[in-house]
Amino acid sequence: MTGKVLLVDDEAHITRNLEKVIPWEMLGLTVGGTAKNGMEALELMEQHSFDLLLCDIRMPVMDGLELVRHIRDKAMPCDIIMLSGYQDFAYTRTAIQFGVNDYVLKPIPYDELTGVIARVMSSQRNKQKQLQEEKQKLGRMIDLASEKILYDIIMDYTDVTADNWLLTGDEQQLKQQQFVLIVLDLDVSSESTKDWRDWSDKERKLWNFAVCNVLRERLQQNGLHHAVIQIRDGEWCVLIETDKEAAFDLSAIKGWAEMLMSAIKNHVKLSLFAGIFREFAAVADLSQAYKLVQQGMQLTPEHDSIAVYPSEQQKSSQADQAFWDTAEKMIGAVKRGDSIGVDNELQGITTLLQRMNEPSLNRVKPLLHFFVLHLMREMKEMGIFSREQEDMLWRRLDRRFGVKDLLSVIRQVTNAVSEKSMDKKKQSEISMSEAKAFLDRNLYRDLSVEETATHVGLSTSYFSLLFKQTFGETFIEYVTRQRMERAKAMLGETAKSIAQIAKEVGYAERRYFTKVFMKYTGENPTDYRSRRQGGAPEHATLNE
After folding, report:
1. Do the strands 235-242 and 178-185 form a parallel or antiparallel pair, or are they unpaired?
2. Which among 142, 167, 229, 469 is least surrounded, fewest beta carbons within 10 Å?
3. Where does the HTH araC/xylS-type domain lie (predicted)?
C-alpha cells in the first residue's frame, strides 16, 4: 500500500528538487501535495490525509513549528521530518517537544534524507502492523467471549435483558445484531455413521474439534462474521451475522450450508445434515429458533440434506408438537435426576400413544424412533451409559421393531437414569466442587469451558447445565465475576500496575481487561484504584 507525503517549503525550487530527487516509489510513497507555508499545508491536511510531512522551519504566514503544533493539537496521524538551515539547538528542542520524528539540516543531503525517510516509514509501518495485530487479537478475544455467551443464550442458560452486565460494552452489540441460524447434525442412526459409534471418546472429541476448526476456517475465508457453537457430540449451531438492511436470501444461505457440508465431507470424511431457520433471528430469539430447527430435524424421519424449519407440515402437526413437548419435558426431568418427573412424563407418552388409532400409531412410530435417538444422545452427554449398554441399545435400534419395543427402550434408558440418579447426584456435587477448585487455581490464565469440563470428566454440554444448576450462573459469568472481584482486591490493596493485575487475573490484553472491568464496576481501573486508595502512588500506574 502506497502512502502520501506533503512537501512544505517557501522556496519552490526545493520542493521541486525533493519531488524529483527522492526515490518516492522505492520508499512506498507518492507526493500528495506541496505548500509554500504552514497555513496552506494545514488547509491541505484538513482536506486530505498524509502519512509523512517534510517541512521547512522558517516560512512566512505560518512557520513550520507553528504548523506542527496545530497538527499535534488536532491529533492528525502523520510522521514529521523538519528541514532547516538553522543549527540553533532551540529549534531542535522545540521540534522534539512537538513530536517531530527527525530533523535534517540544509543544504539537504539527499542520500541522508532518503535514509531518514526510509527509517521513519519503516517504523510507521511496523507500528501500524502491530496495531492491526493487536486489534485483530482483541477482536478475536471479543468474538470468543461472545461465542461463549451465545452458547449460554442458545441453551437458555442466560438472558439478554439490560440487567445482564456481560451484555454491555462490546457484547452489547449482540443485542443489536441479527443472525442466520444453521444447525449441522450427524445422523447417528444411519449406516454411514456406525464407524463413528465405535470410536472412543477421545477419538470423537478430536473429530468434533476438527469439525469446529473446518467450519470456522471456511466461514472466515468467505468473510462471514460468525460463531460456531458445538451443542453436543455431532451437533453444531452456526450463527452468521448479517447486516440489518439485508434481505433474507434463502438461496444464498443454502449455498453457505452446502459450502460448510462439503468442507466437512472433504476434510473430515463425514456427511452432515443442515437445518436452516426460515428467517433472521435476533439474539433474544436464538434459543427458540434453535429448538424449532432441532425439533424439525428430529421429527422429520426423511428430509433433504438441507432443509428449512419450521416447515409448513411442522407448523400444522399439533399431535406431533404435543408428543415432542412431552418428550422434551421427560428429557429435562432426566437431566435433573427427577425420577418421579421421568415416570410421570413416560406415563404421559404411553397414554398419548394408547389413545391413537392404528394409522396415527404408524405415523408416530418414526417420531418415537427419532425421540429415542435424541434421548440416547442426551444421556451419552451425561455419561449415563457404559459402553456395553450403549452398544446394546444401538443394536436394538438398528433392528426394525414396533411401538412397544420403542417404549421398552425408553423405559430401559430412564430406568438406567433412575438407578444412577442418587450416585449421579453425589458425583455431580463432587465434580462441581472439583471444577470450582480448578477455576480458583487457574484464574490467571485463559480458561475454557471445554478444558474445565474435561478436567472433571464431563461433556461440555452436561457440564454447562450442571454448572448453572449448581452455582446459579453460567460458566463465563462465574469466571468473569471471580476475576473482577480478584482484580478489585488487587487494585485496592496493592501497588501493582494495571497491566500486571490484568495478566494475573487472566487477561493478556490490558485494554480488554479495562473494558470488562468497566462493564462490571462502572469505573475504569485507574479511577477505581484512586477512589479505593485515596490517590494511588505515582509508581503504581506508570506501566498502565
Report:
1. antiparallel
2. 469
3. 433-531
